[in-house]
Amino acid sequence: MKRETEGKAEKSLFGFNRNILFTGFTSFLTDTSVKMVYSVMPMFLMSIGASKTSLSLIEGIAESTASLVKALSGFWSDKIGKNKPFMIIGYGLSALIIPLYTFVVTPFHVLILRFIERFGKGIRTAPRDSLIAGSINEGESGRSFGLQKAMDNSGAIAGPLMAFALLSFFPENFRLIFLLAGIPAILAIFVIIFGIKEAKKSKYELFSKFHFKDFPAKYYFFLVIIFVFTLGNSTDALLMVKANEVGVKVALIPIVYLITNLVSVLVSIPIGSLSDRIGKEKILITGFIIYAVVYYGFGITTSLGAIISLFALYGLYSAATDGIQKAFISDMIDKNKKGTGLGIYNALLGITLLPASLIAGSLYDKVNSSVPFYFGAATAALSVILMLAYFLKYKKAGISS
Questions:
Q1: Residue 11 pairs with which residues in a beta bridge?
Q2: What is the pTM of this model?
Q3: Which CATH number do you get for residue 48?
Q4: How far is it, in rounded angstroms, from Cα 257 to Cα 236?
Q5: The dihedral of CA 349, 351, 300, 285: what is its sign?
Q6: How far apart are CA 172 and CA 366, in angstroms?
Q7: pLDDT tens-digit readout, 311-322
Q8: What residues contact residue 348 under an 8 Å CB cut-off, 6+ apart?
Q9: What are the C-alpha distances in Å from 319 to residues 23, 54, 324, 332?
Q10: Under a CB-based contact definition with an 8 Å cutoff, are residues 66 and 122 in contact?
Q11: I need a surface site. Which of 18, 49, 111, 156 has the fewest CB within 10 A?
Q12: Which domain holds residue 242?
């Protein structure tokens, strides 16, 4: 009751807690930087000699090898009852690393920097999500994580737009983009320092020792579903490569990718609010179905118009899953364990991305460009079945999520 009363007292003009708004703004600035780089990185890597397999491997290794940090930082933030220091360090590493892409000359250099930058994300992600979870008013987890997703994707719109503008004036000057991308990331550090307040916990609320039994069985069941789904959810870089092969010019790749993020921004908060009302399981099942349709579509299409439509639909899938999954986990875990629970979830995503990227990249290079998308559609379809089983087992049995 105290948290709810405090949350209402701290509401802003837009009806969100101060921490949630400023955390979202931090994500907006950092995502602007990251997506300026990410939207052109596949084309840059291939320009310096990387294959599609190498492209997928770089992303997979960077995400997976730093993933253990996500679980550890989540547990540590629960243990000491603080989240803000982890955010400063994690976002600070991104601000430091992003401009250094300007100086790379081989794919191996990209791998090293990408690993360090993702290591920073590993430090900050679970504590940030825990801060959001600790600042939410009761019954608004979907809406609050929906705002976080919308702000993430707003940055993912601004970043590619800036990259497109720079490529228009300076064709294929990827290094200039990398240099300028550091500016928003630096600004994000000041937002954390001056805009975010620690969601303090009393010493009696701290989570001092991890035991598997501290988390409910439905949490582990959901992690199994996430593992199956993520195994077919490889790096988005392959979507951009596919778009280029179908006929989208290199300079327009950031704009096509922007469509995904624009759709996600527009619908993330409404979908989050809807999930609070009708149940997050239903939204997640819908999101997995959309993903299966999108990936099957990428596998069969050779049409430029169809590719653009699929990128738009991909934004709808993103809004119906990413933030909703975090809100879903937040709802089922005790307050003093949210950082740990969300950290394990984020770590699982990163670890699974390595085999997912290896599978997709190998299928793309050694079989054909359609098979990795068919594989992703199949794992999504299996996830729908598992999510239906989850719904029947727990929701129908009267066990709330």
A1: 17
A2: 0.78
A3: 1.20.1250.20
A4: 9
A5: negative
A6: 28
A7: 999 999 999 998
A8: 67, 223, 226, 227, 230
A9: 18, 29, 8, 20
A10: yes
A11: 49
A12: 13-195+214-395
